[in-house]
Each structure stands twice: as structure tokens, then as C-alpha cells.
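Entry 14. Structure prediction run on the chain below.
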Amino acid sequence: MQQNVQEAVQFVRARGFEGRFDAAFVLGTGLGTLVDELSDAVSLAYADIPHFPKSGVSGHAGKLVAGTLEGKRVLLFQGRAHYYETGDAGAMRLPVAFVKELGIPVLAATNAAGSVRASIRPGSLVAINDHLNLSGANPLLRDHTEGRFVSLTDAYDPALREVLQRAAEKSGIDLPEGVYAWLSGPSFETPAEIKMVQILGGDLVGMSTVPEVILARYYGLRVVAISVVTNLAAGIEGASPSHQETKDTAAEASEKFKRLIRSFVAEL
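Output returned:
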């Protein structure tokens, strides 16, 4: 693994990705237009980078992009590989290790999520403060080092959440916090499963992010995570989610999302 990570790093550094970065962002479904905010941007397709996983989901461009945002250098993952695509909860292990190898201290994960609370409406942004791993999978399975026993207390860095809240306030954006429940997908959850998530204390539900957060903590990165609420979850007010709805609502909320991210980066 380490040799593969180093080969990927050497490859991108030789193609305009040299130097220091302040933060890396994994962009969820429909949120890839954040790359349009960068100046001096350079990009590479995942398919061209040695050992990188491929993303085959519509709404994910599958590109690595570097550039400047609010005077800071940032690295953007325009899409991710999902557990439901690969059957491997560790599908994003190499990209997260890649962030560590580049010396980037902060990983910001973003996603499109369903709301299991009728009070959190589609189009809302939510800062994730904890998660429920309901998938039955873990990206550290078959890891045989002592590091696999990573603590996930405060996995969603409290100090970074404070920065995010300051950024939201300055941007005039309401930013509640909530617990994100990870289920494997790719089928959407049943109304009964959504009732289970409510009982367990979840506020949001989705098919990503948690593996990257576990891996980021394994590699010693600081983590912050944001959900764009794209739909009410199954059974809430009669909701029956679809991937098209997810993409459409994420696109509608993208301007507010980009405003928040610009403000957050400026505050880092």
C-alpha cells in the first residue's frame, strides 16, 4: 500500500500538484462544481493516476483538482469510490493515505444525505458531529497493525466544527449539527430502516463518508464533514427518494454550499 501511495504522490507532483496544501475536500454527489471556484486550477482524472480507485456514479466527475481558494491551497476529490460500487469498505484507503502523504492536515468530507427529521428540510446544510455505522462494514477490516484500534471519540473535530460554525454565521447560513447514519446502499433505505435510525439517534442517512472518516482518523488527519440534505428519507411525509432527486437538489443547494466552503477555507 505505501509504495502505491508514494507512486501516486510522485505522479501528481510531477504534473502540477507540487507544494503545500491547507486542506483536502471529498466532494459528494452534485457538489463537484466547487472546482469552479478555484484559481490556478490543475486537474487529473482518477483513471490516469496510478492505483487510484474509479468512481462510476453519475454526479461524480472522478477528477483530482488542485488550486487556490480564498488565498489557501486546496485539493479537491471530485467524487469518491463507494462501498456499494466495490464491495470494499476500504475503497478510499489509498486516496486518504495519499492526503496524509502530501502532508495535508485537514480532510473535509461532504455528501448528499437524506434527512430523517422532518424539521431538517431538503436544501439544508448540516455539520456532522458523529456517526452511526449501520453498514456492517469497516475499512480497517484485515488491517493487522495496532493502529486499527483507532478511537472515534471526537472523530468530527470539535475545533474545526467551531470554525465551520463561524464561517456559517459570517455567510448568513443556518448550520445545524447532526448524526449521520451510514447504510451500505445502493438501494435506498426502507421506511422501517429510517424509523430504526430515528430511534438510534440519527439525523441524516447516506451511503458514504463514514469509511473516509475512519480512515482519516487512522492516518491522524483532522476531520470535518458537511451534508447537503437532498431529500426527506423514505416514509417521511410519504417520501420515496431517487438518485435524480439527490442530484437535482444538490445542484440547487450548491451556491449556498460553495459560499459556506469559501468562508470556511478563509477561516482556516
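The longest strand covers residues 222-232.
Filed with the rest of this week's runs.
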